[in-house]
Amino acid sequence: MTQDYVTPEYGKSGFNCPHCGAFAHQEWRLSVDSHEDSTGTGTYSRLHQLRASICARCGNFALWKKDQLFYPPMYVAPLPTADMPEDAKEDYEEARSIFSQSSRGAAALLRLTIQKLVVVLGESGDNLNGSIGNLVKKGLRIDIQKALDVVRVVGNNAVHPGVLDVKDNPDMALRLFKLTNLIVEDMITKPKEVAEIYETLPEGAKDAITKRDNKD
Ligand SMILES: [Zn+2]
């Protein structure tokens, strides 16, 4: 198991560094040296709000204005949605933990996440393309099929170089996290919620519905 990802936060003594990605102790410093504001313009007091956190691991600094990180630009991947199956969640969390270092690695792990999701949905998962095709035959909604195919194609390291490379495109990688959560919500959470509510119907009503639907 990889260590849980700790989001950089103002004033914290340790978090996953936005540069090297490792969990590391952070030393906090004022980013400008103290001096008298001789100009009387208030420039110094504005600068004074800048603080730097310095990573004990790689030595690089991050800049904060008040409590907001503004350098380097930070991409925080969303947490897994509540109904993500355990098996898939492991890969999803690992994708989150390496996201700031490698968009491409995260995308490849998200592809593995959906490979495990199609297994939960009754497919073998060995051939992801074929598994998605089978789900389509069983009535998979077109937008969910598209979401699965985006993660499948972008997460494939064998994709022709330069075409769909997420290496320098964290925005694209970030979208894959959102799509993966959306797939789980649509294919697992929603049917579960509907089934729970349906179960509260009186037996007589459920029997009548079953009879109706068995009639050709
Ligand atoms: Zn670092």
Please give a structural write-up.
The protein is an alpha+beta fold. It contains seven helices and five strands, in the order E-E-H-E-E-E-H-H-H-H-H-H. The chain has helices at 43-47, 86-98, 103-120, 128-137, 142-154, 170-199, 203-214; strands at residues 14-16, 23-30, 50-55, 61-65, 68-71. A five-stranded antiparallel sheet has the order 1-2-3-4-5, with no helix packed on it. A hairpin with a 5-residue loop joins strand 3 (50-55) and strand 4 (61-65). It is elongated, with a radius of gyration of 24 Å.
What is the topology?
Blueprint: E1 14-16, E2 23-30, H1 43-47, E3 50-55, E4 61-65, E5 68-71, H2 86-98, H3 103-120, H4 128-137, H5 142-154, H6 170-199, H7 203-214
Antiparallel strand pairs: 1-2, 2-3, 3-4, 4-5
This protein binds zinc ion.
What's the helix-strand series? EEHEEEHHHHHH
Strand content: 5-15%
Q: Helical content, roughly?
A: 40-55%
Broad shape: elongated
Mean model confidence by pLDDT = 85
The small-molecule ligands in this entry are: zinc ion
Give a short account of the largest sheet. Answer: 5 strands, antiparallel
Distance between the termini: 52 Å
| Rg | 24 Å
Total number of strands: 5
* Structure class: alpha+beta
Count of DSSP-assigned helices: 7
Side-by-side strand order of the widest sheet: 1-2-3-4-5
